Request: fold
Amino acid sequence: MIIVISDTHGEIENIRSILNKLRELNPDLVVHLGR
Reply:
């Protein structure tokens, strides 16, 4: 699974913490942080 996130509101830190939790649950998760 690939998730693409566009940081338009400067909330990357919040998103990153959420993604870290998701990654712990799903080691196969691939995340791309788009600007």
